[in-house]
Amino acid sequence: GDSVTQMEGPVTLSEEAFLTINCTYTATGYPSLFWYVQYPGEGLQLLLKATKADDKGSNKGFEATYRKETTSFHLEKGSVQVSDSAVYFCALKSGAGGFKTIFGAGTRLFVKA
Amino acid sequence: EAGVVQSPRYKIIEKKQPVAFWCNPISGHNTLYWYRQNLGQGPELLIRYENEEAVDDSQLPKDRFSAERLKGVDSTLKIQPAELGDSAVYLCASSLVPSAPYEQYFGPGTRLTVT
User: Fold this and answer.
1) Nearest to A100 among B45, B91, B103 (CB)
2) pLDDT one-digit tens code per residue, B18-77
3) What average pLDDT does the segment A54-75 reach?
4) Residue, of A113 and B97, whose pLDDT is higher
5) Alpha carbon of A67 to those of A27, A62, B97: distances in Å?
6) What is the rounded CA–CA span in Å between residue A95 and residue A21?
7) A106/B100 Cβ within 8 A
8) Distance set, CA B89 to CA A16, B14, B92, B113 (Å)
9) Which of A67, A93, A51, A2 is closest to A76 using CA atoms?
């Protein structure tokens, strides 16, 4: 079945450092890919998405490119801020999967001032 | 626009007791989801509704869990009786339609602790 694997956390960075959180997926068909963010005490919020190969999703300085050849959707940000501290979830959804969203286990990011 | 509303935010019960969670989706959203999120894990789908119909409840433990979405708006998820392993955050989400790329909007969740 469909699955998402993302790098284990926690990831600890200093402010203004470069961020990469790796995400790879296994899916039948052509899924849409998502990154969600969960701030402490809040629900998940969609951060960005990409619906087809080579699409780049971007939002709030974060970006991720849908790489079909490597089945990856890595999250990057050039300069993180303390306010980016949260848990980040990679996810996929495909029609072949019955429109079920499959989430990775999440990666916790701590950014130090 | 109001987001997805869930109540209560926190619930502590003893094992074998019943518990219920309530969700009000974003107005106009036909699709409603209930997820369970265990500590340190991503959300896992329990049930998906399209309007009043439960179209995917394959992951719902039907011996103790039940859900309803009367009139295709609000929804209630119930556990009876609760077990220690049910301790988790229960998330409700809604979307216009289920198909990608339409995103899901999540509520803040109900954190359940079973003692």
Assistant:
1) B45
2) 999 999 999 989 999 999 999 989 999 999 999 999 988 989 999 999 999 988 899 999
3) 96
4) A113
5) 13, 16, 26
6) 26
7) no
8) 32, 16, 10, 9
9) A67
**What's the full length of chain B, in residues?**
115
Quick check: A91 and B42 in contact, CB under 8 A? Answer: yes
SS3 A90: strand
Q: Which residue in A29, A30, A40, A46 sits closest to A86, CA to CA?
A: A40
Q: Tokens in use for B51? A: 């309007």
Whether A91 and B101 lie within 8 Å, measured CB to CB: no
What pairs with residue A92 in β-bridges? A33, A102
Distance CA B18, CA A86 (A): 32
| Strand partners of residue B78 | B20, B66
Q: Which of A55, A100, A101, A107 is the mutation pick for testing B, counting most B CBs within 10 A?
A: A101
**Measured distance CA(A13)–CA(B16) in Å, rounded:** 44
- How far out from the chain centre does Cα B100 lie? 20
